[in-house]
Amino acid sequence: MADGIEVKGLDKLMKHLKENVTLDDVRKVVAKNGRELQGVMVKNSGESTFNKGYFTGALKQDVSAQGYKESNQGLTVNVGTTKEYGPYLEYGTRFMEKEQFVKPSLDKQEPKFKADMKKLVK
Fold first, then answer.
1. Rounded distance, CA 8 to CA 19, Å?
2. How many Å apart are CA 104 and CA 43, to the nearest integer?
3. pLDDT for position 4
4. Burial class (CB in 10 A: 0-12, 13-18, 19+), 102
5. Cβ atoms < 10 Å from Cβ of 115
6. How confident is the prediction along the chain (122 residues), in pLDDT tens digits per residue?
7. What pLDDT is recorded for position 1?
8. Angle between the N-to-C axes of helices 23-44 and 58-66, in degrees from 0 to 180, rounded to the nearest 10
9. CA–CA dist 101, 78 (Å, integer)
């Protein structure tokens, strides 16, 4: 059994990144995709997702107003909700089925983020 993962060609990749890409370029891609993810998540936290009769709009407003935070000097973006019941909606409980709004948003944005990052290293 292997004790980890070996990545070959990492030195070449790092050299290429240092020659062609600045951290500001990466920060711009992270911020752009973070904002797009927030927009998709706002749409996914609407009445079309939560259609069991208890939609109030509070979660959607929270994702819109407070759902975006940058950290790690702009290299990390956190997108989500501060509402304590957000995880119950996303994962469900023994009393209610899940009504996901985070995972579908991430699934939609992930290929765009990867494509934008690949453009940086070409």
1. 19
2. 11
3. 53
4. buried
5. 11
6. 345 545 566 677 667 666 777 888 889 999 999 999 999 999 999 888 887 777 889 999 999 998 899 988 988 999 999 999 999 999 999 998 899 999 999 999 999 999 998 888 77
7. 39
8. 170
9. 15
C-alpha separations of 122 from 9, 56, 119 in Å: 15, 46, 5
Q: Give me the residue label for tokens 């985070």.
A: 102
Name the nearest CA neighbour of 80 among 69, 93, 91.
69
User: Which residue in this structure is represented by tokens 């107003």?
Assistant: 65
> Cβ of 32: how many Cβ atoms within 10 Å?
14
pLDDT in tens, 37-64: 999 999 999 888 887 777 889 999 999 9
Measured CA to CA in angstroms, residue 91 lies from 38, 74, 84 at distances of 19, 29, 13
Question: Are 71 and 27 a contacting pair, CB within 8 Å?
Answer: no
* Length reported for the chain: 122
The token pair at 95 is 């009393």
| CA dist 14 → 24, 27, 69, 87 (Å) | 16, 17, 27, 37
